[in-house]
């Protein structure tokens, strides 16, 4: 595996803050999401997966890892077309299919279009990865606007809830749902209170849904990453804070998307056949007891 890179200033010495949604193509240094010497074993051979927010960051790393394991993927994203096309290129290099669909999953009409595309092209869905999210730094709790609160929950939680409801008819016994939570659901974050609250909701959703679907043979688990170098970071935090990003972990560095993707592979595969309602924690060594 390549040595993990630390976020740093751009060539002129001045860090750059991106507008949301962030673009992976503009990140310096770029995240490690697909170049790792990943040893595939056909764990998802001939399966079909829907991955939200799969254009970049963790979502892209998961899409590429799934493809290497033999899965076709449908990737949803907001509007980052160049990033999405790069994800498709990387998936197709493995010999698997990659369908792209752009739009806001908070829009019910678009959400149904995603489900219909999966129905038409795949017929059934073996794995659903609920990964799309947004976050916004606010220094004071009192300054979190109602509009921001509602938007963050709509993107991070309500869309996940509704997409899972709509896509369940395409899932059969043996299928898996993997949700992206966050270390903030356990440690909290004073600047990301609404975001952290959505991630706490995702943990509770994962545990509750796992019990509801156990008799149907559908497993539901989650991954709660720590600080991972993805486009969400330079589009969220001030440029002068990027060099210290992730250095408060026991490992003293941020993680890379390709260090998180194997958790998603494991939870989607038959290797995790006796796991449901659980959360995995690739977080740089932070102890969360959850």
What does this 3D model show about the protein?
The chain is α/β, with parallel strands linked by helices. Helix content is 34%, strand content 11%. The protein contains seven helices and seven strands, in the order E-H-E-H-E-H-E-H-E-H-H-E-H-E. It has helices at 57-68, 81-93, 108-121, 146-167, 184-187, 193-213, 257-268; strands spanning 48-52, 72-77, 98-102, 127-130, 176-180, 219-223, 279-280. It has a seven-stranded parallel sheet with strand order 3-2-1-4-5-6-7, with helices on both faces. It is globular. The two termini are 28 Å apart.
Q: Which oligomeric form is depicted? A: single chain
DSSP strand tally = 7
Unreliable stretches: 8-15
Element order, helices and strands? EHEHEHEHEHHEHE
The average pLDDT value, as a whole number, equals 90
Provide the spatial order of strands within the biggest beta sheet: 3-2-1-4-5-6-7
Class of secondary structure makeup: alpha/beta
Shape: globular
The biggest sheet amounts to: 7 strands, parallel
Rg (CA only)? 18 Å
**Distance linking N and C termini:** 28 Å
The number of helical elements comes to 7
Q: Percent range for helical residues?
A: 25-40%
Beta content = 5-15%
Give the SSE layout.
Blueprint: E1 48-52, H1 57-68, E2 72-77, H2 81-93, E3 98-102, H3 108-121, E4 127-130, H4 146-167, E5 176-180, H5 184-187, H6 193-213, E6 219-223, H7 257-268, E7 279-280
Parallel strand pairs: 1-2, 1-4, 2-3, 4-5, 5-6, 6-7
Helix pairs in contact: 1-2, 1-7, 3-4, 4-6
């Amino acid at each position: 595996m390549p040595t993990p890179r630390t976020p740093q200033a751009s060539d002129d010495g001045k860090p750059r803050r991106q507008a949301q949604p962030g673009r992976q193509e503009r990140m310096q240094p770029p995240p490690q999401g697909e170049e790792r010497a990943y040893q595939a074993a056909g764990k998802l051979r001939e399966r079909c997966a829907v991955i939200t927010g799969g254009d970049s960051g963790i979502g892209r790393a998961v899409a590429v890892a799934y493809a290497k394991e033999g899965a076709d993927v449908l990737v949803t994203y907001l509007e980052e077309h160049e990033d999405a096309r790069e994800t498709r290129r990387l998936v197709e290099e493995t010999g698997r299919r990659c369908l792209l669909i752009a739009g806001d999953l908070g829009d019910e009409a678009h959400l149904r279009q995603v489900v219909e595309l999966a129905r038409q092209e795949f017929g059934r869905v073996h794995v659903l990865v609920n990964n799309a999210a947004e976050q916004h730094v606010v220094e004071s709790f009192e300054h979190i606007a109602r509009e921001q609160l509602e938007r963050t929950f709509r993107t991070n939680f309500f869309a996940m809830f509704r997409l899972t409801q709509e896509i369940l008819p395409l899932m059969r016994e043996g299928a898996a749902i993997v949700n992206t939570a966050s270390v903030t659901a356990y440690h909290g974050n004073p600047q990301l209170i609404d975001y952290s609250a959505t991630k706490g909701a995702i943990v509770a959703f994962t545990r509750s849904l796992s019990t509801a679907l156990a008799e149907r043979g559908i497993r539901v688990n989650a991954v709660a990453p720590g600080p991972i170098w993805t486009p969400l970071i330079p589009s969220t935090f001030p440029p002068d804070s990027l060099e210290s990003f992730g250095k408060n972990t026991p490992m003293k560095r941020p993680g890379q998307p390709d260090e998180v993707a194997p958790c998603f592979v494991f939870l989607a595969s038959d290797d995790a056949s006796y796991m449901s309602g659980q959360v995995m924690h690739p977080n740089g060594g932070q102890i969360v007891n959850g």
